Amino acid sequence: MSRLAAWVLAIGLVVAACAPARLERVRERRSPEPAPSDLERAFGGASDPAAAKALGNWIEQAHGAGAKDQEIGGYRVRFRNKVDGGYAPGYFDRMERASRYEPVGLEPQREAGIGVPLIGHRDNHRREAIEKWYPPEAINRAVTAVAIPGAMRQGKREVEIRLYDRLQTESVVIAGKREHLAADFTVPWAGLLAETRSLATTGLTSVLRQQTGREAGFSLMEAYDPDKTPLILVHGLFSTPLAWAELTNELWSDPAVRTRYQIWHYLYPTNAPPLYSARVMRRQLDELRAFLDPDGRDPAMQRTVVIAHSMGGLLTKSLVVDPREAFWDPIFTRPFDKLELTAEEREAMKEAFYWKPRTHVDRVIFCSVPFGGSTWAASWVGRTGRLLVAPSRGFNDFFDRIEKKNPGMWQPVYENLAAGTVNSVMSLAPKQRSMEIFRTLSVVPTTASHVIKGSRDLFVSSSSADIPGAESVLTVSSGHGSFHHPKAMEEIKRILALPPHH
């Protein structure tokens, strides 16, 4: 690879890649087993640091032994198998006290309260159907364990251990008093990120190679809640959902956000033209929604909010525009119903060129999105980058197959569409015809749009990042990664606090 090529790739990595966070073990003084008085005080309801540590250590051991009922001192202790807003102990493959670790690469987000924060870890072997939609590396949860003292029976006080999902449960009532739960949101998150190191290079390899080992798709970053609005984060060119590590951590730390929204990430290979990737994303979003709520009754499915960065914003814009006839005549020489297509191909072509807006998308926050293209893509750097980008096999195979049955179907400007020369970088050039058409499409009235952009962005100009009719526009002092800026994060929180647009 030439120095120039290597430099182009380095730019891509600097622009959008995000190294995973990791955990460091906290050095704790070696000591014997927790003093019986500390553990017994925890069983009695105490939540001071010593009692919480003793309870956390005991849960680790008891869970590893199968979470069986035990008699300890004057207590008979059992795990509760069904907890509203929580988990049965058998759901997790292992549990650890969160205070054993410190996150590296993320600001710790913790809250004081009763109980002991834990990492609940479950290997994702797709033991349940929904686990198709969870991160393949693992399912980590921010769990808070609480010991609930009960009645005296046969000289022993009954104690129930409850495992609460801290993103679903803020407080619990104990002995008639509502108590706020302690929390550590960052350590379980950093623990999951530490297992995604191979994903860190996927943003680059998905551009250079046709096969990356990771398929496009959504990942629910928390347990599905039928009452919380989906907040979907869509990454940009040369990137992966790891780019959202910091923002996800920040949003989970805000009670106003986490009680109203559930965070989903979307991963896609960034070598294909954005309008092709957009079609795949729309289909997968429809599939996910149908799986989660087949009857269409969940409050969560009535509204969706999306935050999108760079090229991901182009995919996202496709959710909230109505193209009608805008694309067909400029691209094809004959009417849609005159093409020879299988039923499956016809449906795919219809969704590719005549799709319908997803009216459940209530708001979109566009961060440094090249609506007007990128002059970088049209420059000598971009032209060199185009040579390095692998063609999208799905995109090329699809149109090559159709063209063989329908010779002469392309307008002259699109004759190279199935020749393996069209890719994501080429599509971002300002004069690329499809993107020119796409830019003219207005966001539907049912969706509010917001813009965040960087004043020092070398890849997307200020005018290119604008979208007509935006409800708000914020320029921050940053480069292309505008959403990382503290003012951008505050703006995102402000927007998320707004009432529904429709």
Automatic annotation (TrEMBL):
Domain of life: Bacteria
Membrane-crossing residue ranges in chain numbering: none
Record GO terms (molecular function): hydrolase activity
Keywords in alphabetical order: Hydrolase
Residue stretches making up the AB hydrolase-1 domain: 231-489
Record has Iron as a keyword: no
Name recorded for this polypeptide: Alpha/beta hydrolase
Species of the source: Luteolibacter rhizosphaerae
